[in-house]
Amino acid sequence: MATAGDTVAQRLELYFRAKLLDDVIDVLADYVESEEVPEHREEAQRKAKAVHLRSYPQYLAQYGAG
What we know:
By secondary structure, the chain is an all-alpha fold. Helix 1 runs antiparallel to helix 2. The longest helix is centred in the first third of the chain and has 30 residues.
């Protein structure tokens, strides 16, 4: 039987995994969408790329490829 603490810990783990996956995927959309705003494109793409390149290896290390 799971305790309230176990349930909270499981929910937090799921939250952190989802947040990390969001950092892997959602920034790719930001990268593409920045094409529509030329005056901010370079900076937005630089930031999106940095987040993705930091998060993707971290996600793979923690959760594997599948």
